[in-house]
């Protein structure tokens, strides 16, 4: 408790992970102090730190007060594009695990941020993201639409990569006969003395 007022967002995330690692159930007073300090620190958090706080909440198995969630949404709304693929996937999973229901405007900003860094997601992160979004908003068709858009983008990118590879192979094949002819001519001439 004594160090809690001085803890940074990174420290708070580490505290949550450490307590969870010990498989200890913190007291409600400790959780209240942790949540209050995290709320104070939100204004100073980077996107990665905010994602870390959400993961820490899951580690602690603690659903914060709705006022904390409002503060998180308000602060993170404009920072979501800085969360990066891993931070976005982990935030969506944390919110789904804690059965939070973010506002529509926050979800829209979240999806826009995810779409903006779509190329950076690994396959596993995309699966985690989509599964989490479906758990956050199960009755919404827009998640299905997003999956289809992302699938189209992924297939378009794959088609582009295949086309580039074919073009490179064709260029290499076109250059190969010229160099093969030169090598054959050199062999016909035999060794030079």
General description of the model:
The chain is mostly helical and 193 residues long. It contains eight helices and no strands. It has helices at 9-21, 28-41, 47-60, 66-76, 84-97, 104-116, 123-136, 142-189. Helix 3 (47-60) runs parallel beside helix 5 (84-97) and helix 5 packs parallel to helix 7. The N and C termini lie far apart (88 Å). The model is unreliable at 177-181 (pLDDT under 50).
Any chance you could write out the topology, listing elements then pairs?
Elements: H1 9-21, H2 28-41, H3 47-60, H4 66-76, H5 84-97, H6 104-116, H7 123-136, H8 142-189
Q: Which outline best applies? A: elongated
Give the helix tally. 8
Distance between the termini: 88 Å
State Rg. Answer: 26 Å
Essential attributes:
73% helix, 8 helices, 193 residues
Task: Quickly describe the structure.
With about 190 residues, the chain is mostly helical.
């Amino acid at each position: 408790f004594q160090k809690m007022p001085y803890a940074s967002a990174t420290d708070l995330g580490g505290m949550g992970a450490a307590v969870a690692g010990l498989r200890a159930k913190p007291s409600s007073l400790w959780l209240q102090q942790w949540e209050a300090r995290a709320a104070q620190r939100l204004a100073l958090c980077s996107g990665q730190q905010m994602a870390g706080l959400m993961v820490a909440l899951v580690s602690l198995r603690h659903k914060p007060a709705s006022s904390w969630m409002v503060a998180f949404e308000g602060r993170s709304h404009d920072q979501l594009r800085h969360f990066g693929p891993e931070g976005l996937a982990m935030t969506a999973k944390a919110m789904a695990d804690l059965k939070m229901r973010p506002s529509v405007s926050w979800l829209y900003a979240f999806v826009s941020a995810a779409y903006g860094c779509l190329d950076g997601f690994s396959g596993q992160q995309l699966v985690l993201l989509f599964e989490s979004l479906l758990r956050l908003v199960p009755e919404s068709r827009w998640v299905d639409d997003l999956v289809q858009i992302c699938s189209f983008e992924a297939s378009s990118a794959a088609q582009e990569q295949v086309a580039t590879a074919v073009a490179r192979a064709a260029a290499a094949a076109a250059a190969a006969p010229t160099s093969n002819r030169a090598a054959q001519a050199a062999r016909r001439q035999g060794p030079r003395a």
